[in-house]
């Protein structure tokens, strides 16, 4: 059985993730961490969630704290702490402000919970994954970000709708930045196990339109309802279940790559990775030429934002 801690639990994504994670059978303890001053809100969240556990028949020890140190002995620590973007902002606009939060958080988790797996949700998530890796001093396998998993799910849903098939029949991946430079892997997209390009209807597929919809999905939801919650919350639970269940699923998350993809590496970015109780292991793979070119561009962009943020962090710390 496992202890899961959620940092930023008073936020929209954090508290919904608490609910989705509570459905995972391996979770025995859940800790909600918020900032000092938010004790009443956290206590209220615990009472409300406990009622939902009672109604569902879930048996989890639930507690809250305003100290990250209480995350000790966690198997998985999920970080949703940080500012979200407002309409009109790019995720990268949040980079420095959130990097300061993540650097401090990762340092504390690195010291107090050395065996945990640290799962970043805070945006820009690829950059935050790199910051967390540096400041926690964890091994790369212990750190990952939500990356392009949610983008891949968004594309999967659009493809299933287009071909009028059940969503479980579609396998697809988007790699690269969780942001504008994301790269769809049509070469790795199958429907019912058949490569999508081998289907006669493929030629009519509005591929560009679909990718544009995925690219702008977060922005559109934020414009309409203030924040994205249900997609990320469910995606977070899938990943936590994959770890705790030692499932060895291959999901597309932000992870440190050495040179696994066409020799490209030394960056944290969305790639397919095998995920189990020991952590996250990027899968070496070869791509089509246009996909490699897109991935290189995405890596270049993330490297630049990451380097700028790291430099600014050095100046203030
Ligand atoms: N990677 C992904 O696919 C997704 C990432 N996100 C990101 O997750 C983060 C949280 O989003 P929401 O829950 O919608 O935001 P929110 O504003 O509802 O919650 C933010 C949480 O962070 C905490 N926080 C803010 N500043 C802090 C600080 N200085 N120190 C410690 N904690 C602090 C708040 O107390 C709150 O608990 C954002 O960065 C957002 O962009 C959100 C959805 C999907
Ligand atoms: O768009 C945002 O800022 C939140 C997010 O990352 C997403 O839902 O993809």
From TrEMBL:
GO molecular function term, any single one: L-malate dehydrogenase (NAD+) activity
Residues involved in substrate binding: 85, 91, 123, 154
Pfam family for this entry, one: Ldh_1_C
Catalytic reaction(s) noted: (S)-malate + NAD(+) = oxaloacetate + NADH + H(+)
Residue ranges constituting the Lactate/malate dehydrogenase C-terminal domain according to the UniProt record: 148-310
GO terms under biological process: lactate metabolic process; tricarboxylic acid cycle
Active site: 178
Binding site for NAD(+): 8-14, 98, 121-123
Entry keyword annotation includes Oxidoreductase: yes
E.C. designation(s): 1.1.1.37
Alphabetic keyword roster: NAD, Oxidoreductase, Tricarboxylic acid cycle
Domain Lactate/malate dehydrogenase N-terminal, residue spans: 3-145
Protein family (similarity comment): Belongs to the LDH/MDH superfamily.
PANTHER family with a match to the protein in the record: L-2-HYDROXYCARBOXYLATE DEHYDROGENASE (NAD(P)(+)), L-LACTATE DEHYDROGENASE
Function: Catalyzes the reversible oxidation of malate to oxaloacetate.
Entry protein name: malate dehydrogenase
């Amino acid at each position: 059985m496992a202890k899961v801690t959620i940092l930023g639990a008073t936020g929209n994504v954090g508290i919904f993730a608490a609910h989705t994670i509570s459905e995972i059978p391996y979770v025995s303890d859940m800790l909600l961490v918020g900032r000092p001053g938010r004790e009443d809100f956290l206590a209220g969240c615990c009472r409300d969630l406990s009622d939902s556990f009672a109604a569902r028949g879930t048996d989890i020890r639930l507690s809250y704290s305003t100290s990250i140190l209480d995350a000790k002995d966690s198997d998985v620590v999920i970080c949703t702490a940080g500012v979200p973007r407002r309409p009109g902002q790019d995720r990268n606009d949040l980079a420095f402000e959130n990097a300061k939060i993540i650097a401090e958080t990762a340092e504390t988790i690195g010291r107090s919970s050395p065996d945990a797996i640290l799962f970043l949700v805070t945006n820009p998530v690829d950059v935050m994954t790199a910051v967390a890796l540096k400041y926690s001093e964890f091994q790369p396998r212990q750190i990952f970000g939500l990356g392009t998993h949610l983008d891949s799910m968004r594309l999967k849903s659009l493809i299933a709708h287009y071909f009028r098939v059940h969503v479980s029949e579609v396998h697809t991946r988007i790699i690269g930045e969780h942001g504008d430079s994301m790269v769809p892997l049509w070469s790795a997209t199958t429907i019912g196990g058949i490569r999508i390009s081998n289907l006669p209807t493929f030629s009519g597929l509005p591929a560009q339109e679909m990718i544009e919809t995925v690219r702008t999905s977060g922005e559109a939801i934020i414009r309409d309802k203030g924040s994205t919650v249900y997609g990320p919350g469910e995606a977070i639970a899938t990943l936590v279940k994959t770890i705790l269940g030692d499932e060895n699923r291959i999901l597309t998350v932000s992870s440190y790559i050495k040179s696994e993809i066409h020799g490209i590496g030394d960056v944290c970015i969305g790639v397919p990775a095998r995920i189990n109780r020991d952590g996250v292991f990027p899968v070496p793979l070869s791509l089509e030429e246009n996909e490699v070119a897109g991935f290189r561009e995405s890596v270049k962009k993330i490297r630049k934002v990451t380097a700028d943020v790291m430099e600014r962090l050095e100046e203030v710390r």
